[in-house]
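**Backbone shape codes:**
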Amino acid sequence: MNYTLKNGITTAECTTDGGELISFVCDGTEYVWQGDSDFWGGRAPHLFPVVCSPLDGSVVYEGVSYPMPKHGFIRGASFHTIELSPNRIVFETKNNENTMRSFPYRFNFRVTHALLENGFQTSYTVIAGDDMIFNLGGHPAFNCPFFQEESFEDYELHFADNSDEYIMSITEEGYMNPASAKLNRIKNGILPLRYSDFDRDAMIVENLAEKKVDLVSSVTGHGIRFSFEGFDALGIWTPYSTPSGKPAPFLCLEPWRGLPASVDESGKAEDKKYSIKLASGEIFSVGYEIRVI
């Protein structure tokens, strides 16, 4: 089921299929990628209880190896609505027989979407039914360019943190590799977008002191501000090759509490970087925000 939120000149559409916000329109402009199988059919999936690819398709919990799909299983879950107002909605899903085959813990997983006057907030709440360990993230995709007369490579990412203390990596065949050279593509806080930068997969930025980045047109200065306080890493991705053979007109900005598996890791959940541990009954919340600038 789909729901429409409204707040002044902004509207958003949210769905119980995956609990996603699948449209955000501000002053007549759509900012969220609408999904297209010729490029990538996703829009803004949620990632739980892993981020990206687990090592050899599995995760070890308490000494037992469990099969785990890339990005986890929440993105394919059916949610139900537990709160609804004109500009805010809360979805919830919980463990079931199928999730326990991959993740042997009881949990409630809530997603809240709140529409602002010039943006929106998406936040996650995990309520532990058992002592548990997990990773968590978002995968929202944004139209890039926002307007037909522009091109993808007219756009830049402007990081609020330009201290050069960040770590920038790239996945290779879906995994992190400590032996790979770190990247140095952000200059004075600016990363011009080039399709060739995604020829191996996603770029990943860690150690940012300020968790804000602007996706803006170098031609018009128009864009969005993406804030992701509480997350440890930012994945940046667009497909380098697509089923259509054409460049993909979108960019994913992915806030993560976790990382793709490393080629040298143990596969144990407790050894994964940025893992979150909760005792039974504990609650963890984190979220991200978008504003048009």
